[in-house]
Design a protein that fits this description.
185 residues, 7-stranded parallel β-sheet
Length: 185
């Protein structure tokens, strides 16, 4: 039996320089909406954030935007959200998105996306968060990070078990199975 999930998607408010990044966001959003899951994300109406939210909404799915009191982000707030939660700052936004969600998917993104996934990986390593994290490896975007994780292990700064809740993939069946299997543990 499939578990209904609230999935936090971390990604850029920009579209990047390849149409495949937007297509990946739309694919993830469509999958979330079609399968009755809910999206929790940063609340923007543009870039990959807007694409993933619009795809979930087009499938009749629920979308919760978590929007900090930052003028640049407030100016991009999506107006079609099922629910919009305002936070005082970025730290509160990160914590709330982590707490509200059953699992996490990081699409390609910039420093903000790295900040969010880094915090989750740290919390997983300390066993404070035992939820699945997927790095959606569109066009090999996360391959350098995968190599960095291997270097961390090889240098003795991390162990294989530190990454037990992490999957790096762009295969939707593998991603869906991984999210479900971790939540069933």
């Amino acid at each position: 039996m499939e578990i209904h999930m609230k999935i936090a998607v971390y990604c850029a408010s920009g579209a990047g320089n390849r149409k495949e990044y937007v297509e990946a966001a739309e694919k993830i959003g469509k999958w979330i909406g079609e399968n009755g899951h809910e999206l929790v994300y940063g609340g923007s109406n543009c870039g990959l954030m807007g694409a993933v939210a619009d795809a979930v909404l087009a499938e009749g799915g629920r979308v919760t935007g978590v929007v900090p009191d930052v003028p640049l982000i407030q100016a991009r707030k999506h107006t079609g959200l099922t629910e919009c939660i305002e936070t005082a700052d970025m730290a509160e936004r990160r914590k709330l998105m982590m707490d509200l969600s059953d699992g996490y998917i990081a699409l390609p993104g910039g420093p903000g996306t790295m900040d969010e996934l880094s915090e989750i990986l740290c919390m997983q390593r300390l066993e404070l968060v035992k939820k699945p994290m997927v790095l959606y490896d569109q066009e090999g975007f996360y391959e350098p990070l995968k190599e960095l994780f291997a270097n961390m292990r090889n240098a003795g700064f991390a162990e294989e078990r530190d990454f037990r809740y992490l999957l790096i993939s762009e295969d939707m069946k593998e991603i869906a199975d991984f999210l479900q299997s971790v939540l069933k543990r």
